[in-house]
Amino acid sequence: MHVIIVGAGEVGWYLAQRLGAENHDVVVIEQDEVIARALGDELDVQTVVGSGTHPSTLRAARVERADLVAGVTQDDEVNMICSALSKQMGAKRTVVRLQTDELRGPEGAELRKLVDADLIIDPDADTAEEILRLVSVSGADEVYPMAGGSLVVLGAVVGPESRFVGRTLAEVGSSEGAEWTFLFGSVTRGNDTIIPRGDLQVAAGDHVRVLCTASRQREVLQTLDAMGKRVRRVMVLGGGSVGSRVAEHLSHSADVVLVERDSERAMDLAERLRRVTVVHGDITDTNLLTEESVATTDVVIAATGEDTANVLACAFAVAENPDAFTVAVLHRLALLPLVRQFGIDAALSPRTASANAVLQEMRGGTASVATFLDSDVEVDEFVIEPGSPGDGAVVSDLHLPRSVLLGAIVRPDGSNEIVRGHTRLRAGDSIVLFARPSALNDVRKVFGS
Questions:
Q1: Distance (Å, rounded) from C-alpha 98 to C-alpha 109?
Q2: Is the pLDDT of residue 164 over 60?
Q3: pLDDT at 112
Q4: Does any domain span residue 391?
Q5: Domain annotation covers residue 99
Q6: Extended beta strands in 31-98, E state
Q7: In contact, 308 and 332? CB cutoff 8 Å
Q8: Is the pTM of this model over 0.85?
Q9: Are 246 and 222 in contact (CB under 8 A)?
Q10: Mean per-residue pLDDT for 127-143?
Q11: Does residue 331 lie within any of the structural domains?
C-alpha cells in the first residue's frame, strides 16, 4: 500500500516506523529539513520536504495513488486542509489529527464534513482513555480491548506467589483443561520480548501480555499475583488536556487531587472541575507532593508535556509509597529505560494510542490493533475471508511463521474460545493473534481472500 504521512512528530514518526516494518510504500512529508533527513536516515521510508497544504508537495509524494494520507501534524488546520486536498487529488482514504475541542465538537461539524476525513484522531483523548482503562483494571499495566470488548489483552508483571511460576506454558494449558480462557501472547525478560511456545517456563518478574475473556480479567490478574487494590485516592500531575480529562472522569468514583503549574490554568480548572481538588504548584516539588499526601495515594498519574518531570515525579511517588500504582506519560522513548529502573508501573505514549487507530483504519480487514511502547510485538484482529486458505482449516495445519501466535477466535454469533491446535476456523470468524509486523503479510495471505 502507498501511505503518505504528513508530519514527522512523535505520532508520524511512530507510524512511519510501524508501516515501514510491514514493507508498505511510505512517504513522509515534513517541513523541517533537519527532521526529514533524520527520519530518512533512520527508517526505510521516503521523505518529502514541504507542507501538506501545498498541492505541489502532495504531488511529489504521489498523492494520486495514495491508499491512505494521515495528517498528524500539531496544527489542526494543516491536517484538515491536507485531508481535503488529498481527497480532491485522488487519495482513497484520509486520517486527520484534531486536538481543538471546538473543531471536534458540534461547532466544527460542518467543517469536518467539508474535510471528508475517514477517521479523526486526538492523541490526548486517546491517551486519557488508555489511562482510565488502566485505573479501572487494577494490577494491569496495559489494557487493550479486542473483538468489540469481549476479549482483552492485559499486560502485567508475574508476582512471586503466582501458581504459574516454575511451570511451562504447556503445563499451564494442560492444568486449565477445557476451561482454558486465557493465553500468554508475549513474555518480556530484561530487554528481550518473545512470542512464547509451550516449553517456556514462567518466572517471577516476567512481564507478560495475556489474552483473556473480558469477564475473567480480574481472575487472571489474581492468578498472576498481579491484582492491585481498590482505588480510593488519585493524584494527577499536570492539568493539560490529558490530565484534566482523567481527573474529571475519576472524580466521580475517587478523591482526586490535580496539580497544575500554571496559575491561570489552575484557577480555571478549579472553577470547572468542582469535584477535584486543584493545587497550584510544580510536580517536581517534592515538598508539595508530600504535603498533598502522595504517601497515602493509591494511584499517581504524571501527564504533563515534560517527560523528565513525569518520570521524576513518579519515581518520587514510588520511593514514598511503593504500593501506589504509578503512570508516566512519555512523548519520546529516551526515558523509557528509567521507567522500569525506577519501578514505575506503566508508561503510556500518545504515539501508540493514536497509531493503533490509524493502523486499524489503514488495514481495512483488521477489526482491532494494539501496539506497545517497548516492543515490536503487536496484537491484531483479522476476519477470515470466504475461500481463503484459513477458511475451513484446522489450526495445526496452517503454515504460519513462528513470529505469529494465534490467540482466540470470535464466531459470528459472538461466542469466543482460545485457539488450540485442533480448532477449526471458518469464514466470518474473527481471529485475534500476536505477531511481529514483518509477518503480517503472511497472515493476510492465509486469512484474506
A1: 12
A2: yes
A3: 77
A4: yes
A5: yes
A6: 46-49, 68-71, 94-97
A7: no
A8: yes
A9: no
A10: 94
A11: yes
